[in-house]
């Protein structure tokens, strides 16, 4: 059964990546209205007759989302039944299904009734949470055979709090990025990193779209600097833990790639492949950061138990 769960979890994670990229593709190609105002059917037809590229993109996204909904449901049920004794499994099973359904409902509402750019921008963030939950379920299933070195690891309270804060801030940055796409503000600034490099501080004539674009760039810049600073401190504090050293090294690599792809979007005039990679990398960054959130909550529980257990001693790698 564990082997089947492993295969199912990997399939679910790959499928969730396709859902994320499919949603980004729908937005970037303006294919949201490809099926008209009809949902779940396309233009009210079970088999569409007037085929357009936008219809193919939108309908493909709906089909993939529906299929993966069944896969995630099966994974959640089986994980709950066979691994429910593991601390996080039931919560993550619920979370993955809840947010997958929620993102589908928001997408359906946008098709049938339309939504503001600010509401539509939440769609990608919700998809991100669902993806992260499925990703963590997969890690828990694979942890059964190999515990890595997390049992010998204890994350200090100050670092746990910073992990929580960094994760919440990442969602804010993701929201601003999604707002850029939905507000059609991708190319309103011709230069990078400033809107106009020749006069970087002249903001008196900014349009609303330019404010949205530069707001996202500022938020993303803060995220990059914060991640770099935290990674340096975390690796120094937990240099004896392979999970922390490798994990945070990968985390910095992902945020560096995210910044580079963000700049390339401007330089390549919104190249579709670059834009999709931009969405993929931040999804991987958030999923990995969510793993550290899970470790942090485990160790918060350990610390709470330690307060009532005088014989408890922290692992040797704690500073």
Characterize the structure shown.
With 319 residues, this protein is mainly α. The protein folds into 2 domains: 146 residues, no CATH class; 171 residues. It contains 9 helices and no strands. The protein is flat. The two termini are 40 Å apart.
Give a quick summary of the entry:
With 319 residues, this protein is mainly α.
Number of strands: 0
Proportion of β residues?
Answer: under 5%
Largest beta-sheet details: none
Domains (count)? 2
Q: N-to-C SSE series?
A: HHHHHHHHH
**Which ranges are low-confidence, i.e. pLDDT below 50, for 5 or more consecutive residues?**
none
Q: Which structural class should the secondary elements be placed in?
A: mainly alpha
> What's the helix count?
9
Mean pLDDT: 86
Main traits of this protein?
single chain, 319 residues, mainly alpha, 2 domains, 9 helices, 0% strand, flat
């Amino acid at each position: 059964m564990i082997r089947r769960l492993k295969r199912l979890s990997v399939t679910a994670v790959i499928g969730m990546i396709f859902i994320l990229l499919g949603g980004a593709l729908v937005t970037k190609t303006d294919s949201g209205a490809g099926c008209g105002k009809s949902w779940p059917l396309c233009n009210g037809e079970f088999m569409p007759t007037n085929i357009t590229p936008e219809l193919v993109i939108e309908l493909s996204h709906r089909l993939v989302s529906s299929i993966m909904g069944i896969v995630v449901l099966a994974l959640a049920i089986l994980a709950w039944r066979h691994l429910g004794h593991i601390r996080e499994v039931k919560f993550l099973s619920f979370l993955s299904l809840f947010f997958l359904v929620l993102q589908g409902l928001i997408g359906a509402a946008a098709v049938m009734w339309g939504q503001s750019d600010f509401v539509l921008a939440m769609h990608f963030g919700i998809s991100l949470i669902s993806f992260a939950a499925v990703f963590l379920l997969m890690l828990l299933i694979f942890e059964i055979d190999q515990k890595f070195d997390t049992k010998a690891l204890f994350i200090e309270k100050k670092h746990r709090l910073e992990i929580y804060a960094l994760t919440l801030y990442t969602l804010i940055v993701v929201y601003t990025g999604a707002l850029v796409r939905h507000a059609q503000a991708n190319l309103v600034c011709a230069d990078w990193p400033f809107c106009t490099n020749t006069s970087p501080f002249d903001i008196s004539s900014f349009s609303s779209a330019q404010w949205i674009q530069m707001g996202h760039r500022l938020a993303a810049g803060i995220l990059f600097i914060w991640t770099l600073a935290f990674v340096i401190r975390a690796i120094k504090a937990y240099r004896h833990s392979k999970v922390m050293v490798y994990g945070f090294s990968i985390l910095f690599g992902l945020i560096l790639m995210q910044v580079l792809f963000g700049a390339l979007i401007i330089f390549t005039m919104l190249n579709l492949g670059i834009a999709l990679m931009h969405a993929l990398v931040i999804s991987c960054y958030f999923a990995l950061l969510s793993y550290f959130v899970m470790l942090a909550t485990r160790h918060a529980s350990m610390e709470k138990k330690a307060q009532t257990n005088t014989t408890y001693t922290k692992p040797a790698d704690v500073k």
